[in-house]
Amino acid sequence: MFTARAVEQLRERTQQIANQLLDKLGPREPVDLVESYCGLLPVTVISEILGVPPQDHGRVLSFGAAGAPSLDFGLGWRASRGVETALAQFDAWLGDHLDYLRRNPGTTCSADSLPSWWLDPISRLRSRSGASRC
Q1: Cα–Cα distance, 90 to 77 (Å, whole number)
Q2: What would the pLDDT profile of 31-62 be if each residue is shown by its tens digit?
Q3: What three-state secondary structure class fits 133?
Q4: How many helices (H) and strands (E) does the chain have?
């Protein structure tokens, strides 16, 4: 689980990320805060927690955008199937990513920030389901 120290470090890092995103906005007008800030902040923080390298943050954002319609009421069948497909792709990608972190500790993309209970249960669930992603 996350310790108090880890949560405090996460708070500090989240503030740094928030400041960096705001600094990137610069003086340009107009700005879409949802696209340029609100959407990027949680994805960047979550990506860092999961040890996702910066070049893959856009991929995580794309998966989130593809899954977001699932939060809407009255989602039609076609949209629902699209969300289901996107979430399955994210599940496969995340499983591969966590497997990589497990096999390659200490790399620039490491699982040091992940609590051990994230990696081991996912491995057990995937092996029980017969899923093999690597």
Answers
A1: 20
A2: 888 888 888 899 888 888 888 888 888 899 99
A3: coil
A4: 6, 0
